Amino acid sequence: SHAKEILHTLKEKYFKELQDLEVDGQKVEMPQSLSWYPEELAWHTNLSRKILRKSPQLEKFHQFLVSETECGNISRQEAVSMIPPLLLNVSPHHKILDMCAAPGSKTAQLIEMLHADMNVPFPQGFVIANDVDNKRCYLLVHQAKRLNSPCIMVVNHDASSIPNLQIDVDGRKEVLFYDRILCDVPCSGDGTMRKNIDVWKKWTTQNSLQLHGLQLRIATRGVEQLAEGGRMVYSTCSLNPIENEAVIASLLEKSQGALELADVSSELPGLKRMPGITKWKVMLKDGQWFEEWKDVPSNRQTQIRPTMFPIKDEEKLKAMNLERCLRILPHHQNTGGFFVAVLIKKSPMPWNKRQPKVHQKLPQRTGDTEVTAANSNNGSECVTEEPTLAENEESKKMQELQNSDTEQSKKEGVCGPPPSKKMKLFGFKEDPFVFLPEDDPLFLPIQKFYALDPSFPKMNLLTRTQEGKKRQLYMVSKELRNVLLNNSEKMKVINTGIKVWSRNSDGEQFGCAFRLAQEGIYTLYPFIHARIINVCIEDIKILLTEENPFLSKFSSETQEKVKDMAMGSMVLKYDPDPEKPDDLQCPIVLCGWQGKTSLRAFVPKNERLHYLRMMGVEVFKAKRKEEESENKTEEEVKHRLAQAEERMDVEDKERDLVTKVEAEIGEESPPTPVESSAMEAENKIEDLDQSAKNINSHVSQESKETGIDNVKD
């Protein structure tokens, strides 16, 4: 919702400062908008990373880019990799699967498209972002978390055998088919040759021959899970036809008319593209060329497969319309090389003809139940085979053993990690996702304190602990709740949900032990009817520039509003005034805390800087000055602490020390009547959150015990 304001700031401030700027004797080229990206929302700069980081003249621009990227307001990525999400034509109600999602730039685009209307806190659609690499999944979490969406789930599976998920539709279990699938497969990367020096050293024709089979398996698995009428985009950053047209042609051939290539020539006007090719040859590492499969000697038939060759039948070839694929060449628009194909599914795949059309009743037992209809396979080499009789017997026995436990946990709304017998767990062991029971006593004081609307979907609240005190409350959309509850045995979920409340024991004495979390405030705000204060732009500036300002510093209207309000967590809202066009023209919602004599905002540092920039406040500090001011502040703090300690007796000293230590290690501080200590504990928690850059990856207790780096993302 702040995109237009950021664009205005970029054009009017940062780009103007780059005009006539010289770095190392060279004139700086002005950033240009990408002609084919809608609404001028993508820009290209020729500044190298080295120049951006090292030049004092560009330090301000660099700080702006880094800070806004951490907030999730800007994403930096290769221009051509922005194309696939745009060609998916996403609407907010679409169920989307991103099959090979890490590091997450395209996933971020998809989330952004789901939230096209910011007035809808829970779009009906969702994004399930998958990656096979456990470590890269945490990078994916970090990227996705910047966008603060309750509609994203990160899972860890091999894309070529990603399981069929089930959802509950009016009491019936049905297979989940996706409206949109992004299939950005692993590739040789030869399209990145302009920026990736390694490609020149390591490239061989062998790379493509080894990847072709995997790419075809992933694409096949994708179209199997696509809903009829749905759209799948297949893309690679390679220009090799064996990774591109050969995969698409093979997929089209075995689909027997179930798939067709969409004509997207009218989409993204301004993007220079070349048509897909229909003729190519296959080459071995030693330089041998082959035009047809029959020419390949038998000792080479494991390296070269028939699906790598172009279709010989002219009529079949013509019907495939391979020229509808997009080839983006690096020298046309100063980009990387890229290949994109947009597929539309017209009917079920021939080997899935028995798949239910979303009406067949499936067994009501557990998520372990095999969905025979959707898994059936009539001889396709790229689909997992149907289980043998022996395997079926074994799975039935396992089913019976696990049934009672599973049913119990389902009733409790617990979505734990899958049993290790069913799936080997790699990487970190994840904490379970536990939905709050309807009668949980935890929720009543929260509902009362914030006067939550009766329509508030409390069933969508979850925590990551089954025992002990619940420290954080997260929220997912009801569609993702459905997916989580029905598939916990077959799916390894790394992360989902957005943090909406954090435990703050000092709040208990004021009526609610949970304070609002800034990450989830835009999702929660429409449901809150109490403890909201509308403030003017000057008050917002005070809240964002001062750590714990006294109430006397705020406007008389604000002072009047908070006078009769109980202490504790609250919402501070700024609404733009259309009659003052020079003021900030986008709404701001902040989490605040009212003390006895002060009012403060609980907002992460980069987000503070973002809002201040939007209001035209200069936030840039040269590195040296910043360090000096930090040292100065530290000295002042020490001096104040020393004075405070003189006034405290021994008992108070001990209690304060305990509060500080516990806040530092993430424990809750015991309730204390001294309001200032509550604020210090909260400060520490916020600072720790920032310094660790813990993007709510909900670090599990197990990973702490094994001594693995706690900050997973």
Automatic annotation (TrEMBL):
<feature type="compositionally biased region" description="Basic and acidic residues">
    <location>
        <begin position="701"/>
        <end position="713"/>
    </location>
</feature>
<dbReference type="GO" id="GO:0005576">
    <property type="term" value="C:extracellular region"/>
</dbReference>
<feature type="region of interest" description="Disordered">
    <location>
        <begin position="351"/>
        <end position="418"/>
    </location>
</feature>
<feature type="binding site">
    <location>
        <position position="184"/>
    </location>
    <ligand>
        <name>S-adenosyl-L-methionine</name>
    </ligand>
</feature>
<feature type="domain" description="SAM-dependent MTase RsmB/NOP-type">
    <location>
        <begin position="1"/>
        <end position="346"/>
    </location>
</feature>
<comment type="similarity">
    <text>Belongs to the class I-like SAM-binding methyltransferase superfamily. RsmB/NOP family.</text>
</comment>
<feature type="binding site">
    <location>
        <position position="131"/>
    </location>
    <ligand>
        <name>S-adenosyl-L-methionine</name>
    </ligand>
</feature>
<keyword id="KW-0819">tRNA processing</keyword>
<feature type="binding site">
    <location>
        <position position="158"/>
    </location>
    <ligand>
        <name>S-adenosyl-L-methionine</name>
    </ligand>
</feature>
<keyword id="KW-0539">Nucleus</keyword>
<dbReference type="InterPro" id="IPR023270">
    <property type="entry name" value="RCMT_NCL1"/>
</dbReference>
<dbReference type="InterPro" id="IPR057286">
    <property type="entry name" value="PUA_NSUN2"/>
</dbReference>
<dbReference type="GO" id="GO:0005634">
    <property type="term" value="C:nucleus"/>
</dbReference>
<feature type="active site" description="Nucleophile">
    <location>
        <position position="237"/>
    </location>
</feature>
<dbReference type="InterPro" id="IPR029063">
    <property type="entry name" value="SAM-dependent_MTases_sf"/>
</dbReference>
<dbReference type="Pfam" id="PF01189">
    <property type="entry name" value="Methyltr_RsmB-F"/>
</dbReference>
<dbReference type="GO" id="GO:0000049">
    <property type="term" value="F:tRNA binding"/>
</dbReference>
<dbReference type="InterPro" id="IPR057285">
    <property type="entry name" value="Pre-PUA_NSUN2"/>
</dbReference>
<dbReference type="InterPro" id="IPR023267">
    <property type="entry name" value="RCMT"/>
</dbReference>
<keyword id="KW-0694">RNA-binding</keyword>
<dbReference type="GO" id="GO:0030488">
    <property type="term" value="P:tRNA methylation"/>
</dbReference>
<keyword id="KW-0175">Coiled coil</keyword>
<feature type="compositionally biased region" description="Polar residues">
    <location>
        <begin position="372"/>
        <end position="381"/>
    </location>
</feature>
<dbReference type="Pfam" id="PF25376">
    <property type="entry name" value="Pre-PUA_NSUN2"/>
</dbReference>
<keyword id="KW-0489">Methyltransferase</keyword>
<feature type="binding site">
    <location>
        <begin position="100"/>
        <end position="106"/>
    </location>
    <ligand>
        <name>S-adenosyl-L-methionine</name>
    </ligand>
</feature>
<feature type="compositionally biased region" description="Polar residues">
    <location>
        <begin position="691"/>
        <end position="700"/>
    </location>
</feature>
<dbReference type="GO" id="GO:0005737">
    <property type="term" value="C:cytoplasm"/>
</dbReference>
<keyword id="KW-0808">Transferase</keyword>
<keyword id="KW-0949">S-adenosyl-L-methionine</keyword>
<protein>
    <recommendedName>
        <fullName>tRNA (cytosine(34)-C(5))-methyltransferase</fullName>
        <ecNumber>2.1.1.203</ecNumber>
    </recommendedName>
</protein>
<feature type="region of interest" description="Disordered">
    <location>
        <begin position="661"/>
        <end position="713"/>
    </location>
</feature>
<feature type="coiled-coil region">
    <location>
        <begin position="617"/>
        <end position="654"/>
    </location>
</feature>
<dbReference type="Pfam" id="PF25378">
    <property type="entry name" value="PUA_NSUN2"/>
</dbReference>
<dbReference type="InterPro" id="IPR049560">
    <property type="entry name" value="MeTrfase_RsmB-F_NOP2_cat"/>
</dbReference>
<dbReference type="InterPro" id="IPR001678">
    <property type="entry name" value="MeTrfase_RsmB-F_NOP2_dom"/>
</dbReference>
<dbReference type="GO" id="GO:0016428">
    <property type="term" value="F:tRNA (cytidine-5-)-methyltransferase activity"/>
</dbReference>
<keyword id="KW-0820">tRNA-binding</keyword>
